[in-house]
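Task card 7
Instruction: Convert sequence to structure tokens.
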Amino acid sequence: MFQVISAWFIALSVVTATAQNTADSIARQYQRALGNAERLAQLKRWSLVGKMVSPDGSWKRSFRAWFEGTKARTELVVQPGIIARSWTDGMRGWSIQPWTQSLTPQPMNQMSVRRMSVLASLWRNDLLAPQAGVKLEYLGLEELDGSDCHKLRARHSDGSVWTYWIDPDASLLVKLRVEARVSGEQFEWEATFGNYRNVEGVLMPMMLDTTSGLMIIEQYEFNPSLSPTLFSPPAQ
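Output:
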């Protein structure tokens, strides 16, 4: 009986080690495919300029965003001269929604704050900058839009689960899902990535189709100078 248990334990250990090695190997392939991945791993701030597209494609609006750590600020041009703004200091968030006929900042709920913070953390993910104590698990291949993709998962200390899908040919990230509990409710955020282009030596997705909306990105900027007031609470 002891020999059977020992053999089972050894076999399980081998499978676990193999899966871990596979996860680490895929992460390294992803880093190499990006080009200068070290630049993203050391990224402190970033911004983007592009268009937000409606789900049915009937409209496009100019969109800008700035990020630092888990802090984020977005601006959407609703009409010329009319801008919707949302921002978070990483813990709390506020928004100005002109269609409410008010320019007074209103508090955002924690679900919205979490969505913005996840977006801000895209390039500080487990494939690029693993957190201490967090391990990537290899879950095998899974079909995504007709193609088999590597599927990896990381469980964070805050209870959130980050799942990644990597294209086996290009070794690039094609999908991310983040699941968590926020204020006692189930939180889920997804993004698909496409149309990669070289940006300052790094392959970056110019299309982000997220739970928050479809973004067609025209420009990235790495480590721009940002005013701290971008993410500050509204003046009382």
